Structure formats: C-alpha cells, structure tokens
Amino acid sequence: MVGKRRKDDRSWVDLEVQGSEFRDTRLRRRFASLLEELWDGMGQTIPFACQDWASTKAAYRFLSNERVNEHDILSGHFQASAERVKATDGPVLVLQDTTTFSYQRERPELIGYTGKTTLRTGKDGTGPRQPLTQCGILMHSSLAVSADGLPLGLAAVKFWTRKRFKGASELKRHINPTRVPIEEKESWRWLENMRQSTELLDDPVRCIHIGDRESDIYELFCTAYELCTYFLVRTCVDRLAVDGQHTISKVMQQVQVKGLHRVELRDTKGRPMTATLELRYQHMTVLPPIGKQSRYPAQQLTVLYAQERDPPPGRARIEWKLITNLPVRSRTEAIEKLDWYAMRWKIETFYKILKSGCKAEESRLRTADRLTNLIAVFCILSWRVFWLTMLARSAPQADAELAFTHTEIELLERIVHDTPHNAQAPPLVRNVIRLAQLGGYLARANDPPPGNTVMWRGMRRLTDIQIGYELALKRSG
Description:
The chain has 477 residues and is an alpha+beta fold. It has helices at residues 2-9, 11-17, 25-40, 46-50, 53-64, 70-86, 168-172, 188-201, 218-227, 248-253, 331-342, 345-357, 368-394, 406-415, 420-423, 427-438, 452-476; strands spanning 92-103, 113-120, 129-146, 151-160, 207-211, 230-234, 240-241, 246-247, 259-266, 272-286, 299-308, 319-324. Helix 3 packs across helix 5 (53-64).
C-alpha cells in the first residue's frame, strides 16, 4: 500500500517529466527524483531537500552535467503546458516579461553581470556612494494563462548573462540604437519567445501575447503579423501614424471619449475606492521608425487609451496606453482588452513565487550553468504552486483529484476541521482551503481566497505529515 500511495503521489511529477528530451533516460529518472525532492523541500537548500549525501551529490552532479541544460529540464513542462492549453477553450494570454536573479560571489565572472547600481560605504552605511556592478542571471519567460487567470504553464524561457555591462545611456553615446538590427539586441528575446510559444501551442489565432512598455518594439508587431497571431502591449513610443505627418498621440487627441469604465482599487492605506476611466480607441495606420521604413511595412493597428477622469489629489493619474492588432469596435471590447492586459501581473506573481517561495536567489551554486539549471527546475515548482492557488478560483467545480492525490485528500480531511463557511464549498475548494489553513490561512467568512504564500507553507507541512503517515502505515503492516 505504501508503494501504491507513493506512486500516486508522483502523478503530477510524471506528467511534467514524461515529455522531457534528455539525451539519456537515466538523466530523466534523476530529474524526476530531483523535482520530487525539491517539491517536498520547497524553499530549503539542496542538502536539506535531498536529506542524505548520496542524493545531494547526485543532485549536484545533475545540475553541473554538461549534457543537461535548461531546455532539457523544461521540455517536458512545455509539452504539458501545450496539452493543458488544448484542454481549455477561449483565448490564451501569453504573458512575457523579464526578471533578474541577483547573487553575491567572490568570483562574479563565473556567473555574469546584470546591471549597475550604487552602494553606500562605511560601517553604518552613511558614507559616499560607490558604483557597483551587479552579478546575476536574467530570465525572459512566456507564461500561458487562461482568460480567467488560470496559469497553464510556461511556453518559452530564455536565460542569459552578460560578460560585461554597459548601461543604455552609455551605449547611446556611441551608436544609434534604431540603426542596430534587432537580431543583435537583447530585445530579440521578445520575438524569439513569441515564435517559440506560438509554435509550441500550435494555435496562433487563440494566442494573445501581452507585454509591458519594454515590448513596444515595431519588429514584434511585424512578427505577430507573420505568425498570424495577436499581441497587446503597453506603448511607450509615440510612433508616426496615418500619413507620416502625425503621431499616434496627435491622432488620439482628436478622438472623442467612447465610453467610461469604473474600476475598484485601494488607496495607499488599503481603503477601497472607485476610479472612472475614459476610454478612447482608434484603428489607424502605424508606420515603422524612419530608419526602418525600408525594411518593414506599415501596420494596421488599434490604439486604446484608458485615462482616469478627475484623479484625487496626492495620487498619480491612472493612464494606460495600449496598442494591439486585435479589433476594438465597442466599449465592451475595449474593457475586455483592459482586463486582458491587467492579467500581465500574473507573471509578476510567478516571479515572486520563484524568489520568495523557492528562494532562487539564495542558492550558493557558483556558476551560471548550474544556477540556470536549478532555476529551470524551480520554474516548474513555482508554476505548480501558482496553479494550485488559482485553480479553485478559476474552476471551483473541478474534481479535487485534479489537484490532490487520494492520500493528500484523506490527510486533509483528518487533520483540518472545516469552518461552517468552508463546509458548503465544492470538494476542490474545500481541500484548497484546508491546505491553506495548514499554512496559516484563517478561512474566515469575509477573508479573500488564499494566496500563494499560505499555499506553499501548507504544502510543506502536508509533505511532512504525509511522510509520518506513510511510516506509520509501514510499521503497522
């Protein structure tokens, strides 16, 4: 019975591993073991998660193996993400963003550099500021999310480091960035991720690639056109439009307000308030930058402005300027695009789980290759926590067995007592709340749904409880 339960507990791990493309089946087995060990010891060091020297040494050897890279580690997860996308209906929001993992090392050249900052000198930190080049790894990822916010998995990931770092302002003194081909810039990652995720998901008309101001790249607009897919990005460039004698902002100044949208938010003290946004949208011809007009054609795009009416004193005005190749013909469609862009924050939550839950920045591995492999493993764990958190909100009527094994459900029923409010919830929601209660969630009637922090705390406690439960079963025969 113990063996059967153990096999059942690894079912989600097997799903994320079975499509892996390792060069050796032994590496796949080792990866499955490491993934399970790090899941059981999420947020802990590798020796703590592995528990003995043999397993710890095997983990270190796997992460430093020259035949293992981040693509091998994530290949199975990518395939599982594609299967989850196929099992859903409606649009798929592909959220793109970049994050930085910072480290302190005696030999930072073994990892690479990410940027520059300043650090105050002196024992009490009151001395003059000294320039400091930051050591670390950059990761650009594409997270597939359903329209109601359920994270379906990663669709593309790119890691890189810099042998040296020069700020953008310094580079602009020597070269005109608009004259440099996009293939020679780090911005190329936005286009590559769009291509890889579109190919993986194999349904370009369902994909809406969403990015912040950094993704306002004309080449990205052209790539979306070539792939027959869609994008929705926040614009920061006032591009030439219509006949080339006007800019987008000048055209939008002539567009009248076409609707209002009220949004609920909280002020700096946490008090609820309502903001009224004026909606303007216009379909127009957008031209490439002057230096690129010989290489790229004009695009027919829609510009959407959402600007707050009468903002209160002491708070910055809410203002979103979006550009897309999706049609916006009504107030309802405009609000839909705003809601989709608001989903971009989901990838920030994913990065928070990576850094706070998995503690990816606390690893002591010494080289970029080993850290990259470890972060790739953490990406799968972070997605799993995020998925468990959002599943009960997005699909409360789903089967509880979709997220929990029979053993986990049995233990949660025995250990956690339902509140009167929780007792009436569907089975999946009940077990999610029980798990969150193990992590410190109070489950009061007016409490918001449990978040990621209490979920990963609860999962760690449940893992320890399950180990004791299985040992008790083994002793009793």
